[in-house]
Amino acid sequence: MDNQLEICSFNIQSALIAQEAGAQRVELCADPEGGGTTPSYGLIKRARELLHIQLYPIIRPRAGDFLFNDEEFEIMQTDVANCKNLGCDGVVIGMLQSDGCIDKKRCAQLVQLAYPLGVTFHRAFDHAAHSFEALEDIISIGCERILSSGQKPTAIEGADLLNELIRQAEDRIVIMPGSGVRANNVVELKEKTGAMEFHTSARTTIKSPMQFINESMKEEGAMTMVDEKEVWEIVQLLNNG
After folding, report:
1. DSSP 10
2. Which of 23, 71, 79, 148 is deepest in the core (most CB within 10 A)?
């Protein structure tokens, strides 16, 4: 399998930058400060219209932990159905029980509802109580991929566990390192983990193009954006690796 790069994008501009710079997949999110929540219907629809690369919106109704109540689960089911109807390639999910185990029952329901779309299990995995047991649970519910930083704040810090997970997975599921992945460490991360897919937001902040800024509001109106040069450099490094 060739190396794959997924870009976490928080707006339509970033999704288009990711595509132009050579990424294979966009994880579409809202709320960068909260770690990513479900984007609006309108954003998903427009992204699907403009992107020819894979599109995987995150299904996460709020920021915070990954223990969701029944009302939140109803919202997640509706959002999965919307993504399916809009022609997305997959969705990104993740739910835990209060003891830190994978919420197998409800995750399996979302996987079934999403079919035939692909399903990635997001970094809720990094908050799970037992990583190797969690890996087997996620395989059993039918996910195709796990996004993980190896249960550390960054993937480089969690590289040893990521390598162990990849070896345990034995091609039954993709382990995709993410968090802190940049051009200056992606080759090292690939060598240490043996991973073939990588995830990054390649995040940068741009100033507002507004000519008038009301200084009394004490808000700059800056936007979180994907750094096109960073994505391009990672793509080249992976292609040449």
Report:
1. S
2. 148
> Which token pair is 123?
């970094």
Rounded distance, CA 8 to CA 107, Å? 22
Name the H helices within 69-126: 70-85, 104-114
Range of the domain at 142: 4-240
Count how many domains the chain has.
1
Kindly tell me if the per-residue pLDDT of 82 is higher than 70.
yes
DSSP string for 113-163: HHTTSEEEE-GGGGG-S-HHHHHHHHHHHT-SEEEE-TTSSSTTTTHHHHH
List phi, psi (to 5°) of 101: -80, 160
Phi, psi of 191 (to 5 degrees): -65, -40
Per-residue pLDDT reduced to its tens digit, 27-39: 999 999 999 999 9
What's the CATH number where 28 sits?
A: 3.20.20.380
Reported as a single tens digit per residue, the pLDDT across 153-189 is: 999 999 999 999 999 999 999 999 999 999 999 999 9
